[in-house]
Amino acid sequence: MRRAAVVRSLVCAAAAVGILFSGPAVAHATPSPGSVEAQIDKQWNQLEPVIEQYNDVHGKLIKNQAQQKKLAAQITPLQVKVDLAMQQVRGLAVDAYKQGSPSALNAMLITGSPTGLTDKLMYLDQLARHQQEQIADVAALRDKLAATKADLDAVTKSVAARDVDLAQRKKAIETKITSLQKLRIQAYGASGADDGPYKTGPCPVDYTNDKGGRAAQRACDLVGLPYVFGSAGPNSYDCSGLTQAAWASVGVHLDHYTKDQWNQGRPVSADELQPGDLVFYYPGSLHHVAIYIGDGMVVHAPHTGDHVRMATIDRGPIAGYRRPG
């Protein structure tokens, strides 16, 4: 009996120690959709400026590389002309070395008259000067283009280095995106998005048959496609890729970068808004853009894990409005 009592005491003591070191069991509740969206918005507002910067730098790199090829294509035939001319000059020099330079006396003996000598010398002089001028013009143009290309090569090298750096940061972004998506799945289920419709009513709300109205209609046609950063279609979009594609459908070019799009349209006020106008968010950073579709509604590509969708215009702090075209 006494031994049993001792054992019970030891068991109770061990249990007490276990409670002391392990603490009470804590139940981990599934985060609410509201708290997940708040986390996503906070983290996404830090990520999206980097994404837009990548779009800007990568776009410049592509343009510079295209310009490099164009300049190289212009320089090559000029270089061929210069090389050919120099070969001709070297040929004349070789002939003069072998045969001796023609003198006025030799020319007179060949022609038989002083008048013929003068005419021949004038003709030879004009021909030589004309040939020199042609060579000089071609060489000058070649040198000018070569200097332009050298400057462009230096700039492109710098842009390429930034592109590599941002590509590395892009990998880090993708890792962060994966963690955000896991939060969405935990809150919403395997779809990673809420069950609400991407369209909340007629889209566009106000239809007009001008370029802006047709651009708004194009954006509405893309509702439901997934968000993929750096993408401008045809199967996925990020925010500036969506607005670029919408306006491209009516023949208006916008760069794939929110800050460039801000500078590519004229300012309008909130009272002047028409379907197709661009709505920019987050004053200072300008890292998100949507397209207005009427009655206080926009279409935009929100963030990873989501889709192109309708939203109220007040979805975030507004920086201003621009009208492309």
UniProtKB/TrEMBL annotation:
Residues 209-325 form the NlpC/P60 domain. Residues 1-27 form the signal peptide. Keywords: Hydrolase, Protease, Signal, Thiol protease. It comes from the Bacteria. It holds the Pfam family NLPC_P60. Belongs to the peptidase C40 family. This is C40 family peptidase.
